[in-house]
UniProtKB/TrEMBL annotation:
Keywords, ordered alphabetically: Isomerase
Family: Belongs to the triosephosphate isomerase family.
MF GO annotations: isomerase activity
NCBIfam families noted in UniProt: tim
Taxonomic placement: Eukaryota, Viridiplantae, Streptophyta, Embryophyta, Tracheophyta
Biological processes per GO annotation: carbohydrate catabolic process
Protein name: Triosephosphate isomerase
Species of provenance: Cardamine amara subsp. amara
Length: 318
């Protein structure tokens, strides 16, 4: 990472601008663990089409992180048996780019319906899970139960759980550790409120939430970080590509400094907050945006497919 960003990250000030340049050491780590990766300039890597998971007739994916593009649909507390059957049918017939991990997160009560009717191409996630083994916890859903229904992922620390339900950093970190220990992947959400951004605390808030995950989890192998500014969620006020990129760079920098270069490179950092079919391509072009967590627009199959396929705007000729 550039010296200036390191200084800014450690100082916690949100006032930097401009895009990141990866340091030679971070690039070296990237190159060493990917099957076939070129460094094409100081900031962007190409993931070659000779790597099976990234094969595409339209070119190779250029991004800063080394993980596969990831798009999650968070259906929140929406849907009925009928509307979900229609959504699943639309997803089953959609054409999805091969080089994207795609996950949907239905309300708990419909997970079984979704799992038994949705194509295996798309994985299923819970929207939350209990902090430990199941038992006498009225109204909760355990990690074991999510696994029993075939879920591969769980969303933890979503802002609606933090700010509407009142979940705290440490509790969320413990949930993440438990879910990982049982083999579920974790979509770990972080993000600042509007007043925090306006007070210049965006990085402080994000880093604190990130630290709670870092303090609790033994490994980042199965963690995707979702940066979701609270002011952008469900408001139609999407972050600009530059605003999102700036925080994603800072998050990757934080991981590099506080966890490891390898984790900083491998961990997908996805953006969430009013992503839709119209704005996803511009956001996806940013080199540190490794995918999306989508709420409202994930309730429409064709639009969600457009967002999944925005990976094409990251592709350059092979
Ligand atoms: P939104 O929600 O896309 O409706 O803004 C995103 C989220 O909460 O994950």
């Amino acid at each position: 990472m550039a010296t200036s960003l390191t200084a800014q990250v450690s100082g916690g000030t949100p006032s930097f601008s401009g895009l990141r340049r990866i340091s030679p050491t971070l690039d070296a780590a990237v190159v060493s663990h990917q099957s076939f990766v070129h460094r094409v300039n100081s900031s962007i890597r190409l993931v070659s089409s000779s790597s099976s998971s990234y094969r595409s007739p339209r070119g190779v994916v250029a991004m800063a992180g080394s993980g596969k593009f990831f798009v999650g649909g968070n259906w929140k507390c929406n849907g009925t048996k009928d509307s979900i059957a229609k959504l699943v049918s639309d997803l089953n017939t959609a054409t999805l780019e091969a080089d994207v991990d795609v996950v949907v997160s239905p309300p708990f009560v419909y997970i079984d319906q979704v799992k038994s009717s949705l194509t295996d191409r798309i994985d299923v996630s819970g929207q939350n899970s209990w902090v430990g083994k199941g038992g006498a916890f009225t109204g909760e859903i355990s990690v074991e139960q999510l696994k029993d229904l075939g879920c591969k992922w769980v969303i933890l620390g979503h802002s609606e759980r933090r700010h509407v339900i009142g979940e705290k950093d440490e509790f969320i970190g413990k949930k993440a550790a438990y879910a990982l220990s049982e083999g579920l992947g974790v979509i770990a959400c972080i993000g600042e409120k509007l007043e925090e951004r306006e007070a210049g605390k965006t990085f402080d808030v994000c880093f604190e939430q990130l630290k709670a995950f870092a303090d609790a989890v033994p490994s980042w192998d199965n963690v995707v970080v979702a940066y979701e500014p609270v002011w952008a969620i469900g408001t139609g006020k999407v972050a600009s590509p530059q605003q999102a990129q700036e925080v994603h760079v800072a998050v990757r920098g934080w991981l590099k400094k506080n966890v490891s270069e390898e984790v900083a490179s491998k961990t997908r950092i996805i953006y969430g907050g009013s992503v839709n079919g119209g704005n996803c391509a511009e956001l996806a072009k940013e080199e540190d945006i490794d995918g999306f967590l989508v709420g409202g627009a994930s309730l429409k199959g064709p639009e969600f497919a457009t967002i999944v396929n925005s990976v094409t705007s990251k592709k350059v000729a092979a």
